[in-house]
Structure formats: structure tokens, C-alpha cells
Specification:
heterodimer; A: 220 residues; alpha/beta; 5-stranded mixed β-sheet; 7 helices; globular; B: 250 residues; 0% strand
Chain lengths: 220, 250
Amino acid sequence: MDVDFALIGHQESWRAAADVLAVLRGPERMRLPDDEIRDILPWIPPRAVCHVEVGSVFDTKIGDTKIGGAKARGLYIDSFIPPDRLEAAYVHENIARVRAAAACAIRDGAKIVSLGGFSSILIEGNFDQLPERHATVFTTGNTLTVGFIVQGEPPQLNAADRRSDRRCWVRPRSLFSAPREARAAQRPQRGAATQARGRVASRWSSGGNRDRSTALFRRS
Amino acid sequence: METLVGLNCSTVECTSPNAPIWQDILAQAVTGELMAAMNYASLSEICDNPAEVADALEHAQIERGHAARFAAEGRKIGVDVSNNVDAKHWKRLREEFLGCITERDFIGCLIVQEIMLESFAVASYARVGKVAPGSLGTTFASIAAEEEEHVDHAMEILRAERALDAQRFDDKVYRLHLDVMTTLAKMLAKECKDGHCEVCHASCVKPALFDVSLSAAELRGASLQQYLKTLDMLGIPGELTLAWVAQLPV
């Protein structure tokens, strides 16, 4: 079934990555040693990690339409960019990871995809770097995007008016981090990351035989 | 038991300081290829269609050819490449495949051989192919490409099978994953914690892999990545397969 939205992110620390893997392994298995996590995580292809469901507890009115209790179903897709590989030397590898994560979101039919954390910086507003998008819309917003998804249009964002009904146990970098973003918005923009985000923040991009088979492999 | 391949090895003086490392890598590869040949030969016994029987036997022959090519590469560098399909991990993998044969589970056989074992072969051969010198590297890379074709061929059948009942198919893959991939994960662990693998000719080769620009962690990582990508191509949800892989022993 198609999802309403997808959130693309990555873990901001090895500790966060270890927590994710620990949940995936389940309580009956011992946590992976740190050195094993550092060896394994970089090889994991981008993929959905969990489902996210968000909803509004308050009634919202858009025009004459009341959309109280609106809910949206989504996916968190981790690009599995290793926390220690954010520097320029890995830019091509990381862009490939974001592209693969975007492909996951498109394949799952997400209507809108938020590029969280370092993902948006890698794409730098050039959405042509992403795969064929079909009907999927990509944004570089984070918390704001979630607000848009829940409320259906750019809201008067107020943390008290939102409820993040998260069944997702990951802590993707920068996602759901309204206080930090609010602080960032209040201070002068600085640094490449902030500037890159600033450049793209106002843009809501849309756009988006094998004849040799032998009999064994032609089984119907 | 029928002899699957005549390797006709002769011991020649080693010409490279890394020859013993390549010798063990080749021994694992030859063992894997011989096991694949045995698996295809067994598969031919449960095929109903004569064309399928012929194809399974042809695949067995191809795998024996791979084993012979690896053995020949060993001779070129002056090492005698042994093999041991009864080594503990390989024997366990063979038993798991034979379990599918006993149940006449054609799809299960393909999942074990083409999705699990071939993922491991494709990924590890490709990595070795990048660093091994001369014709040794070329041979590994070339056989990796041929094995990848095998996987591609099987994907058509397996996708069609999954389309019939995705839940049932995914449950079957998971059951086989628990058995086969757990064994493979132990083989691919950074250290052989359960004792000697019974394929390396002396001590475990894993610590020495750094000398030829490889590492056990890299081979494991590449193999798991290939496996996950192959499962993705089958259409199994990525969040599901991620949990499967995360639960493997290290």
C-alpha cells in the first residue's frame, strides 16, 4: 500500500546507530559490539526502517473543510550514511545513498518525501540528482514538512498544536527536532549547511530478459 | 559418491609471499563451487521436466568448471588448492540444501543456492577480483559476473512465485534465512570463534587478509549487502530484511 510520506535521514552518531540495530536485533539478542557496528553499517543499502504515523489532535479548518484528527502514514528510510563519513571525501558515495533512499520512497509510492539531516545538503536543491520521480514530491524541510503533511497546507506552526504519534523508534538526524530548528531560524544563517538549507527551503520541488534463459529458469 | 571434478593438482614451489593466502582463498572458492555443483546435481533429481533436469545438470557442470578454473589459478601461483565439502560450515550448508531436496522444494532450493549462496559468491569473488594480481583477479571477477547471471536467471522464477502469495513466500525465505544465513554468517565472521574451518590449509586465513588488501569484515559486508539487494529485487520489504540481517550472529 502506498504511503503518504517518507522521511529520509541517517543516524547522527554511532550510539544512535547502535540503538537502531539493538531494536532490530530484539531484546533476546545481545547488542552488537561497537566495532561490529562500524564494520556492518556502511554496507547496509538504504531502506525503509520503520513506519511512522502522525496525526493532529486538534481540528483544523482549510477553507470550509474541517480535517480534525487528520492522520498520515509514512516511512522512515535510512540512507545509512555512516556518522563518520559526512566529509567531502564521501560526497559521491553519500549522494548515491540519498538517491537510493529516494528510489525506495518512490517505489513505495510516497506522495511527499522529506530529505532530512545531511541528505538535503547533499542534494543542494538540485532535485535533478534524484531518480525519476513520477508523482513523488521532494522537499528539504524537516519538522516543518511534517507539519505540512499533517495539516495539509503551510500551517501556523505551533508545537502545541501537533502530536507526533510515532511508532518509529529511530532518531533520524534532524527529524522531529523542532526546538533545534526553531533556534536555528532565530540566529543568523551561517555555515554551508545552513546556507544550503536556506537556498532550498523556499523551493517545493515537484516533478517529479533475459533471452538466454534456460528452461530451468522459464518455469511458469 | 561420484567424483565431481578432477582437479589434478600438483605442488609447485610457491612464487609469491602471499601465495599461502591466495591458496586458502582459492580453497574456499573451490569448495563453494563444488558444493554448488553438488547442489545442482541434487536439484536435477527432483525436477520433473526433462529440460529442467538438463538445465540443472548444465549448471552443475558450469560450477565444476569454475572449480577447475580456480584450481588452475592456484597452480599458476604454485599452490595446491585443496577443497573440503565436508568442512563443518560447508557441510551444514549442504545439509540445509538437502533438506529442501528431501521436501522436493524446488523454490526452496533456488532460494538457498541462488539467493543466499550465490550472493555470497558474487560479492566475495568481486571483492577478491579487485585486488588479486593478474589472471587470478581476472578469473575471480569473471566468475563473479557469471554467478551474477545465475542469480538474475533465478530471479524471474522467484519473483513469479512471490507474486502468487507474497506472505507465504516471505515466510519461506525467512525460514531458510534462519538456517542458511546463520551458518554463512558464522563463516563470514571476522574471527572463526568456533575453531578451524577445516578448509584453510594451516591457521585461519582471516587475519592475513589485510596483506592482500582484503579483510574478513569487508567480505562479510559486501556479501550481506549483495544479499540485501537481491532480496530487494525479489520485492521483500526492506525493513523486514534489514531486521533479518541485523539478527544474524557476528
